[in-house]
Amino acid sequence: MSCVKIETTGATPSPRGFHTATIVGHSLIVFGGTDTASVFGIDPLPPPFLPSLISPFFLPPPKPKGDTYILDLDTKIWSEAKSNFRRGGLNPMPRHCHAAVR
Fold first, then answer.
1. Cβ–Cβ < 8 Å for 75, 6
2. Is residue 53 classed as helix, strand or coil in its secondary structure?
3. How would you write the pLDDT of the chain (102 residues) with one tens digit per residue?
C-alpha cells in the first residue's frame, strides 16, 4: 500500500484538523474538524502581530466546523453536502475530535 496525491476538482473543503474522513462506497466523506488557526498555529491576525509564533497560549480556541464535503472517488470531484431543512434534512452539530463509522 502506498500514498499517492491525486488531482481533484470541485468545492474542496478548507484546511482543517481533528475531522473525520470516512469511505462509504465510492465516496470519501469529510465532516467537521477545526479551522486552520486553532489546529496549525496560524494566527488570523496579519503580521507583525503573530502571537501564536511566540507562545501557544495565544492561540484562539478551537472553532468546530459543521460542514460536510464528499469526494467522488471515481470522478475525483468534490461537492459540499447541504441539508434541506424544509424537507426534514438535519445537519449534525459542529464538532471536532470525534469519530465516524459506516
1. no
2. helix
3. 888 888 999 999 988 888 999 999 999 999 999 876 655 655 555 455 454 454 555 556 678 888 999 999 999 999 999 876 555 666 778 888 888 887
What domain count does the chain have?
A: 1
Domain of residue 48: give its range.
9-87
Tell me whether residue 97 is in a domain. Answer: no
* Strand duo 68-72 + 27-31: pairing: antiparallel
Task: Write down the residue that cell numbers 496579519 correspond to.
Answer: 46
Q: Which residue in 28, 32, 35, 22 sits closest to 8, CA to CA?
A: 28
Flag whether 102 is in a domain: no
